[in-house]
Amino acid sequence: MRIFGSVAMEPEEAAGMAMEPEEAAGGDQDWLQEPQEEATPLKYDIMTMPADYTLEVLHDKWRKREIVMPKFQREYVWSITQASRLIESFILGLPVPPVFLYINSEEKMLVVDGAQRLRSIFGFFEGHFGDKAGKKRHAFRLRGINRDSRLYDKEFGDLNLEDQLRLKNTILRSILVRQLHPDDHTSIYHIFERLNTGGITLKDQEVRNCVYAGRLNDLLIDLNWTTEWREILGRPKPDKRKKDVQLILRYMALFHGGADYRAPMRDFMSRFMSERRDPTDEFIRSERRRFDDACRLVLAKLGEKPFHQARVFNTAVFDSMFVAFARNLDSCPADVAKRAEDLRGSQEFQRRTTHATTDEAAVRARLDLAQRSLFE
């Protein structure tokens, strides 16, 4: 059953990665305990190089679709004053921060940082201001600058020839980024995260929600409203920072690739989302049906909050046991509740779910323990 609804780098998770119950007072408390262990060091072979493109060249690449605004970039949100002051800065020769462009496997340049600036530039050249859908488009006249300026209230075509040429020939430093190894393009996640978090640290799934927007992301958000899932979590409403969505992603990634799991868990989940960003209809139907059935089975056999320990939700207990239930929907023994109790009480399982929980050996060991203890 599903009720309808909608959507800094931190140390790697460990020691249960537990969720704290929501306070009775009601506020949006941090119900997911922060990771305590350091992440496995990221190992990337990345090439970065500066490119001094003129604005005219950037606009030409944009029109030829050599520069692409990826799905994770938000729509155009700048005001006419912000955009006008940017154009004025170029013409007056004032410094403007560089943009970051990520070169993908198709040699396209994906805008990682600088989307609002580039959209303002291209809009001014093309004579319109507003969003891509055209709902708010109107002539782009320079406003919000000094009324005595020769540039005030001018469109591009109204500028004198000298100012037009100065604008077209102005250089905007572009930092080109290319990931050479590994061949999975996961570095774009970290680049976007570090350039766009600003003063508020985005949680991992909030970043993925931007970087890997697509049908899989939509499915995860939809599944997060499943009634039985909310009862398993013991939280009636979705978490604002998408930590519960990340739990579904974690289960799904381990269900499909647990045997090949490679630390860190953060990148393991990101690769899964990247590779299945826009899955087939059959994949979506299959995952929806399996998740629904697993939630119902877990709730029926183990009751509400089955993965809580000492009033907190243990992520490592959840991922291993939920994957096991999802793998054995049609062969659940009658005494599975007793088996689950024995499993949680075993020293080996406790060790694998409370210490170094994202190490490769720990992840694989507890997945195997849960499968053998519950269903064999």
| DSSP summary, beta strand count | 9
**Rg from Cα:** 25 Å
Q: Biggest sheet: strands side by side, in what order? A: 1-7-3-4-2
Largest sheet: 5 strands, mixed
Query: How many angstroms does the end-to-end distance come to?
Result: 29 Å
Shape: elongated
Query: Could you give the order of the helices and strands?
Result: EHEHEEHEEHEHHHHHHHEEHHHH
Determine the number of helices (DSSP H or I, runs of at least 4 residues). Answer: 15
Strand content: 5-15%
pLDDT averaged residue by residue: 82
Based on secondary structure, the structural category is: alpha/beta
- Helix content class: 40-55%
How many domains make up the coordinates? 2
Runs with pLDDT <50, length 5+? 1-28, 31-41
What are the main properties of this structure?
single chain; 376 residues; alpha/beta; 2 domains; five-stranded mixed sheet; two-stranded antiparallel sheet; 15 helices; 9 strands; elongated; disordered N terminus
